[in-house]
Amino acid sequence: MSNTAVLGIDIGGSGIKGAPVDLGRGDFATDRLRIPTPTPSTPQAVAEVVAQVAEHFADQIGDAPIGVTIPAVVTHGRTRSAANIDKSWIDAAAEQIFTERLGRPVHLVNDADAAGMAEVKYGAARDNDGLVMVTTLGTGIGTALIYRGVLVPNTELGHIEIDGHDAETQAAASAKTRLGLKYSEYVPRLQRYYETLERLFSPDLFVVGGGISKEADKFLPKLALKTPIIPAELRNRAGIIGAAWLAADAAGRTDLLS
Questions:
Q1: What pLDDT does residue 1 have?
Q2: Rounded CA gap, 208 and 225, in Å?
Q3: Buried residues in 58-89 as b, exposed as e (16+ CB within 10 A)
Q4: Is the pLDDT at 194 greater than 60, yes or no?
Q5: Strands (E), the chain
Q6: CA-based R_g, the chain, Å
């Protein structure tokens, strides 16, 4: 296996975090670096911080590509939406902006997709070769759909309409906090959400991430589903690890993936 690690960088609303990832182990090769997200979080300002992270780890990543996650729909390197980042990201040539600023290949991916791939390759779903749905319950609901290890990108299933509402406004962890719900009051909302996904997709496994998954024992066992549903394992490392794996895969760097 190559000794070169692949840098994964996770862009969030409050912080930009990065770490070299050993893709043989599926874990950080060294401690991560976190830099506050600039205000305003325009593409050019964020690219400067991403460059700082890349420069910090330059000696550890050789000529490997860099994977970057962002809270946006990403198609053909362009960001088509913007959640918790500046609206100037909408329809920006984001991947090109990063590649030009860093002077090396950058692979840009939706943050939930990156976390989902990490769970399938190294985390809670690593032994499942069927249809896996990874959901993150946070401010909104992020989703990743992976079939036999292949990502179906940008599913955005937190925004499906259920009973006349955008699902994440009713079932995200933020809804529980906003409304002051007890778990006994929150579980029916999750039940309605996951039973709808189950009916539409018939997945082999649900994996649930987000900060609230630390208390998964308080709500997952109370859901009545045909599909197994389990908590995520990688927690806040998932985005960085998934971004690194997807970057190596997109670049055809099999030497880094084995």
A1: 38
A2: 14
A3: eebbeebbbbbbbbbbbeebbbbbbeebbeeb
A4: yes
A5: 6-11, 15-22, 27-28, 33-36, 66-70, 74-75, 78-79, 106-110, 131-137, 141-147, 150-152, 161-162, 165-166, 205-209, 229-231
A6: 18
